[in-house]
């Protein structure tokens, strides 16, 4: 990524991808042929995601090392980021004087219809999270937009009285939001694009795409419900 398009701030905004960043040409990467014509560009290649995830794991180890934590993975979009983040924390724990004993739990949310975030947030299953009482919780979310989803989820989790809550977000979109809803650990700050890939979907499509890409208008029409 060119310096003119990316800024770095490891503790707050993450890697900042500017609005005028054109992304990478799709022809430079391998991607499933069945998505030909459905994507505009690659905005974050898979290798860059992996490197940034390793850095976030180190930050989490620095802050939470020697604390037992419960990782709360937000499905479905967050499963790949969560799996890779947990793997890297485990690797660091095996090669350090500090360690993070972890348990992983999953919670499923739904707030999108096509490419629009709705006000109607569903916590599917309405699980009893009473086991979080007095625990250190790390919520792992793939995308933070307006912050409404995280705000609602935090309120839900806080009702079970955990000792501490931290949030790791792979992507934060530049939209109007309450800054108090920003994650504690941010991978990338991106323009307000609808992105897919790396387990992020559009109506359940594109989860099998390794890179994070901007979906094309024709792609939206093709898979619209």
From TrEMBL:
This entry's Gene Ontology molecular function terms read:
hypoxanthine phosphoribosyltransferase activity; magnesium ion binding; nucleotide binding
- Tell me, in one coarse class, where this protein mainly resides: cytoplasm
Question: Can you supply one Gene Ontology CC term for this chain's record?
Answer: cytosol
In the record, biological process GO terms are: GMP salvage; guanine salvage; hypoxanthine metabolic process; IMP salvage; purine ribonucleoside salvage
Q: Which UniProt keywords apply?
A: Cytoplasm, Glycosyltransferase, Magnesium, Metal-binding, Nucleotide-binding, Purine salvage, Transferase
Q: What class of enzyme is it?
A: transferase
Q: Which InterPro entries match?
A: HGPRT (IPR050408), Hxn_phspho_trans (IPR005904), PRTase-like (IPR029057), PRTase_dom (IPR000836)
Instruction: State its cofactor.
Output: Mg(2+)
Phosphoribosyltransferase domain mapped to chain residues: 50-202
Task: Name the chemical reaction catalysed here.
Answer: IMP + diphosphate = hypoxanthine + 5-phospho-alpha-D-ribose 1-diphosphate
Instruction: Give compartment(s).
Output: Cytoplasm
- Its Enzyme Commission number(s) read 2.4.2.8
Task: Say which domain of life the source belongs to.
Answer: Eukaryota
Concerning Gene3D superfamilies, the annotation shows: 3.40.50.2020
Q: In which pathway does it act?
A: Purine metabolism; IMP biosynthesis via salvage pathway; IMP from hypoxanthine: step 1/1
What's this protein's family per the entry? Belongs to the purine/pyrimidine phosphoribosyltransferase family.
Give the protein's recorded name. Answer: Hypoxanthine phosphoribosyltransferase
Organism the protein comes from: Monopterus albus (Swamp eel)
């Amino acid at each position: 990524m060119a310096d003119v398009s990316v800024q770095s701030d490891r503790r707050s905004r993450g890697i900042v991808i500017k609005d005028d960043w054109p992304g990478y040409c799709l022809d430079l990467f391998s991607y499933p042929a069945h998505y030909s014509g459905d994507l505009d560009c690659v905005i974050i290649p898979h290798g860059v995601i992996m490197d940034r995830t390793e850095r976030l794991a180190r930050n989490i180890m620095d802050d939470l090392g020697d604390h037992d934590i419960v990782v709360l993975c937000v499905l479905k979009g967050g499963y790949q980021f969560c799996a890779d983040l947990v793997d890297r924390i485990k690797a660091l724990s095996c090669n350090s004087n500090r360690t993070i004993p972890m348990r992983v739990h999953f919670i499923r949310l739904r707030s999108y219809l096509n490419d629009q975030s709705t006000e109607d947030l569903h916590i599917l299953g309405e699980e009893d999270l009473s086991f979080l009482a007095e625990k250190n919780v790390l919520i792992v979310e793939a995308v933070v937009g307006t912050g409404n989803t995280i705000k609602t989820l935090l309120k839900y989790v806080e009702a079970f009285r955990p000792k501490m809550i931290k949030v790791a977000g792979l992507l934060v979109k530049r939209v109007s939001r309450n800054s108090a809803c920003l994650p504690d650990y941010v991978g990338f700050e991106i323009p307000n694009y609808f992105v897919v890939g790396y387990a992020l979907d559009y109506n359940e499509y594109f989860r099998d795409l390794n890179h994070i890409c901007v979906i094309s208008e024709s792609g939206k029409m093709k898979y619209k419900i």
